[in-house]
Amino acid sequence: MKRPTIADVARRAGVSKGAVSYALNGQPGVSDTTRQRILDVAREIGFSPSNAARALSRASANAVGLAPCRPAKILGVEPWFMGLISGFELELAARSYALTLQVVATPEEEIEVYRRWWGERRIDGVILTDLRENDIRIPVLQQLELPAVVLGGPADTGTIPQLWSDDTGSMTEAVRYLAALGHRRIAQVSGLTSLLHTQARTRAFAAASAALGLDGTVTAQADYTGEEGGRATRRLLSSGNRPTAIIYDNDVMAVAGLAVAQEMGLAVPADLSIVAWDDSLLCSLVHPPLTTLSRDIPGYGAQAARQLLKAIDGERVDNAEGSAAHITARGSTAPPR
Amino acid sequence: MKRPTIADVARRAGVSKGAVSYALNGQPGVSDTTRQRILDVAREIGFSPSNAARALSRASANAVGLAPCRPAKILGVEPWFMGLISGFELELAARSYALTLQVVATPEEEIEVYRRWWGERRIDGVILTDLRENDIRIPVLQQLELPAVVLGGPADTGTIPQLWSDDTGSMTEAVRYLAALGHRRIAQVSGLTSLLHTQARTRAFAAASAALGLDGTVTAQADYTGEEGGRATRRLLSSGNRPTAIIYDNDVMAVAGLAVAQEMGLAVPADLSIVAWDDSLLCSLVHPPLTTLSRDIPGYGAQAARQLLKAIDGERVDNAEGSAAHITARGSTAPPR
DNA sequence: CTGAAAGCGCTTACAG
DNA sequence: CTGAAAGCGCTTACAG
Question: Which residue is nearest to nucleotide C5 (CA to C1')?
Answer without folding.
Answer: B18
